[in-house]
From TrEMBL:
Pfam family, one: Beta-lactamase
Stretch list, region Disordered: 587-621
Sample GO molecular function, one term: hydrolase activity
Organism from which the protein derives: Glycomyces harbinensis
Keyword Hydrolase found: yes
UniProt-listed PANTHER family: BETA-LACTAMASE-RELATED, BETA-LACTAMASE-RELATED DOMAIN-CONTAINING PROTEIN
Protein name: CubicO group peptidase, beta-lactamase class C family
Length: 639
């Protein structure tokens, strides 16, 4: 591979910082003062296994997942396949935890339609004997998930000292600002974080050649100054792909093959697949003269680039994409190959767009904490990406879970179906399947995960309260707009919030009785002064119509007047809440009988016990600042 070395002062500084973070892995976290506000999680709460995990098939018990919830994934997906306008005709899904694959199935069809009649908005089906079923090894057009492969090659080049994300694009592509000098300040980091200021999309497939296509990108006006805001743009990754090619002196498809696919053993991953019959058909595109697209990239601009571009063009099976995802969860390593250094892999989980809004959260090419498709798998360090053809990958490093969903949503048209409801339908049971260990005993109260619903759990006191105090254990992980509260009432009709005092080992905060969001996935000690005259004390959880987190749990309820316990939590009235025993993995609803064992994520900031006694590589100290290569800011991890 022909490459030229480019390691200037800024690049050297980045590499030094990365090396320091790597050396710091073995350090113990310093003792922390009590902090105000709920716990959260950051890139240094992500731990990588000492020995990289390899994917293998196993049971929910081995993965420490609740089988009944894993068993919901496929039925939930297939509910989106009904006529007359299915969200997708075919799919392959793969779910794993700690490298143990507990679900890998396919359904529907990889080919069903001949064309699309735009005039009547009708799908024209092939004769039924020509339909082809989707299979576990069906090859799908990943669409924008291809950007993750471009980002990974970028990270690999960082490790080799070949590029510097703080350097201007013009250092690598001298013509980049030739038509628009305002593009001069754009850096490689801006491209990777989608903060360059370039527009999301322009038609390039009608341009006569590659030079004309690139000149069109170079000439199109910016929508905002570089680094001043976020806008997801295909143009960013097209340009970044050209940078990588210029640095290496090789085409992007060769770089992806040599740096990622061959070391990881991804035999079914790459651009321009050779076996069209194994691929899932995508869209009927008469405007490109291709008819029903199959075995060629769906994206028109990537097709114009010969099927190879930084923003789209990669095809893969669910298994291959899962291996790619597990490599990231392993800290850049898999089956003896190191694709990324640990420090560069940690950049995947580091938000470089802080302050630009939740939808802008990005690490090394990956999105962070996007509930619109991650749903209950979401956390501040959950990463993933989607593809326009109906693909997605989600990695939750705190739980060690991985979910790959590949569909041919655009077959036969992009105008059918839903955008991401089906993605959430798979992510929600996957997140729910990770057990929450009760604070005591085997059961805890759970508020459920129903959208657009209110659930209540009520304690009826024997007499009107006088100088009473309530205590209970609380665990919550919700969307910010899905709010829970402790409320009191003298008559069961009028309710008022009861202020809460909340504590963990190293955090202390107070609320007006309401709480929502992410709280470190750990049990919280909650206390409250019950208003005098209270007869009813309830926990209320109200969810909006959209997304969910892993939910709200309550345990160890006690109401005391002085030393006397007036309510011990043994008789609570539930409406929408249920007593759950997450630690018992049942086979109900699962494809095959699976038995599970105890589990539970330890709070971020404490070293987790890995399955089978595996040791984990330590992260850097809690307060170590990370370098934001897009804007130069530094941030602690916030825990």
């Amino acid at each position: 591979m022909q490459r030229r070395t480019m390691l200037g002062g800024a690049a050297g500084a980045i590499c030094s910082a990365l090396a320091f973070a790597s050396r710091a892995n073995a350090e113990e976290r310093p003792s922390m003062p009590e902090l105000t506000g709920p716990p959260t999680a950051g890139p240094y709460d992500v731990t990588f296994p000492e020995h990289p995990l390899r994917l293998r098939y196993g049971s929910c018990g081995e993965a420490r997942l609740t089988a009944s919830h894993i068993g919901r994934i496929v039925p939930e997906l297939e509910s989106f396949m009904s006529d007359p306008a299915p969200s997708f005709p075919g799919y392959t899904v793969l779910a794993a935890r700690h490298g143990v694959v507990v679900e890998h199935r396919a359904g529907g069809h990889k080919l069903r339609y001949e064309s699309w009649d735009e005039a009547t908005k009708t799908a024209v089906e092939l004769p039924e004997d020509q339909w082809e079923e989707a299979e576990k090894d069906t090859v799908y057009d990943l669409a924008s998930i291809s950007k993750l492969f471009t980002a990974t090659v970028t990270g690999h080049f960082i490790d080799e000292g070949l590029i510097d994300l703080k350097s201007p694009v013009v250092e690598y592509l001298p013509d980049f600002d030739s038509s628009d000098p305002e593009k001069s300040p754009i850096t490689l980091g801006h491209l990777l974080c989608h903060t360059s200021g370039m527009i999301a999309f322009i038609n390039l497939y009608d341009k006569p050649d590659e030079q004309a296509r690139m000149e069109a990108i170079y000439a199109y006006p910016l929508r905002r100054p570089p680094g001043s805001g976020y806008e997801y743009s295909d143009l960013n990754l097209i340009v970044l792909g050209k940078v990588l090619e210029a640095v290496a002196g090789q085409p992007l498809d060769e770089l992806v093959t040599e740096i990622i696919c061959e070391p990881l053993g991804l035999k079914d991953t790459g651009y321009n697949p050779s076996e069209a019959g194994r691929t899932a058909a995508t869209e009927f595109q008469p405007w490109t003269g291709r008819g029903m697209v199959r075995g060629e990239v769906h994206d028109e601009n990537a097709w114009a680039f010969g099927g190879v571009a930084g923003h789209a063009g990669v095809f893969a099976t669910a298994w291959d994409l899962a291996v790619f995802g597990q490599m990231i969860l392993n800290g850049g390593r898999y089956r003896g190959a190191e694709i990324l250094s640990e420090s560069t892999a940690r950049l995947v989980f580091t938000d470089q767009n802080a302050g630009m809004g939740e939808s802008a959260a990005r690490g090394l090419g990956w999105q962070l904490g996007q509930r619109w498709y991650m749903d209950a798998m979401s956390s501040p360090v959950t990463v993933g990406h989607t593809g326009y053809t109906g693909t997605s990958i989600v990695l939750d490093p705190l739980a060690g879970t991985l979910l790959v969903l590949l569909t041919n949503r655009v077959h036969p048209t992009r105008n059918w179906g839903t955008a991401s409801a089906y993605r959430r339908a798979a992510s929600r049971p996957m997140g729910r399947a990770v057990p929450v260990r009760p604070r005591s005993g085997e059961y805890a109260w759970f508020a459920g995960q129903a959208d657009d619903a209110t659930a209540t759990l009520t304690a009826v006191l024997p007499t009107a309260s006088l100088d009473a105090e309530a205590s209970f254990a609380l665990w919550y992980d919700t969307e910010a707009t899905d709010v829970a509260a402790l409320e009191a009432s003298p008559d069961g009709e009028a309710w008022t919030p009861v202020p809460l005092d909340l504590r963990t080992e190293d955090h202390h905060w107070e609320t007006d009785g309401r709480f929502s969001g992410f709280s470190g996935r750990q049990w919280i000690k909650a206390g409250a002064q019950v208003p005098d005259g209270t007869m009813f004390l309830r926990w209320r959880y109200t969810a909006d119509p959209a997304y969910q987190g892993r939910g709200v749990y309550v345990d160890k309820v006690k109401v005391r007047e002085g030393r006397a316990v007036v309510h011990d939590g043994s008789a609570l009235v539930a409406d929408g809440w249920e007593l759950v025993r997450d630690l018992r993995s049942t086979a109900a609803g699962a494809r095959s009988a699976r038995r599970g064992g105890p589990s539970g994520r330890r709070p971020p900031g404490r070293r987790p016990a890995a399955p089978g006694g595996r040791r984990t590589r330590r992260s850097a100290p809690a307060r170590r600042a990370c370098t934001a290569w897009c804007c130069g800011r530094t941030r602690g991890r916030g825990l």
